[in-house]
């Protein structure tokens, strides 16, 4: 069965899309640790990041960098924290999280509850910043 992220890429499940290339897709995390918390995935469904082919893996970071630059243009923060966990969804993803301190990367913190309009606005603004690069 397809992962929830494959279903997002295929448009079967909605997402607040940030950017897309032939191989990668970026969208807002639905249970964010911070406003602008974004997930970057390869479209190809591979559970564990270290099982991703070298070429596909090598292209993922430059894409994440461009997405991260767009997030930091919109969300005030010291920098974008980058992490990989992957214990919940078996489809490789990089978390990009606007942070001001190490505690902002603590996944045990309560997640933000944002109204749909705020997700929409964040995604639209980050998309615009991405397109300007
Ligand atoms: P991990 O697998 O790295 O532990 O966490 C998976 C992440 O995916 C979580 O931060 C969770 O909020 C996010 N997530 C799970 N399901 C969905 C979904 O359907 N849509 C979006 N946008 N994010 C999701």
Please, could you describe this protein's structure?
With 133 residues, the chain is an alpha+beta fold. It contains three helices and five strands. Strands 1-2-3-5-4 form a five-stranded antiparallel β-sheet. The protein starts with a helix and ends with a helix. Residues 4, 15, 27-31, 39, 85-89, 93 line the site of guanosine-5'-monophosphate.
Q: Ends: how far apart? A: 36 Å
- In what order do the strands lie side by side in the largest sheet? 1-2-3-5-4
Helix count, DSSP H or I runs of 4 or more residues: 3
Q: What is the overall silhouette?
A: globular
Ligand identities? guanosine-5'-monophosphate
Kindly state the number of beta strands: 5
Give the class-level CATH name: Alpha Beta
Q: What's the CATH H-level superfamily name? A: HIT-like
The largest sheet, given as strand count, sense and whether it forms a barrel, is: 5 strands, antiparallel
């Amino acid at each position: 069965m397809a992962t929830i992220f494959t279903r997002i890429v295929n448009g079967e499940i909605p997402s607040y899309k940030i950017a897309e290339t032939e191989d990668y897709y970026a969208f807002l995390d639905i249970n964010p640790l911070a406003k602008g918390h974004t997930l970057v995935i390869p479209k190809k469904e591979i559970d564990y990041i270290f099982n991703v082919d070298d070429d596909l893996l090598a292209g993922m970071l430059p894409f994440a960098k461009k997405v991260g630059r767009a997030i930091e243009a919109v969300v005030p923060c010291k920098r974008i924290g980058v992490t990989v966990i992957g214990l919940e969804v078996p489809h490789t993803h990089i978390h990009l999280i606007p942070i001001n301190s190490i505690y902002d990367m603590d996944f045990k913190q309560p997640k933000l509850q944002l109204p749909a309009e705020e997700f929409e606005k964040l995604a639209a603004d980050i998309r615009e910043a991405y397109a300007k690069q």
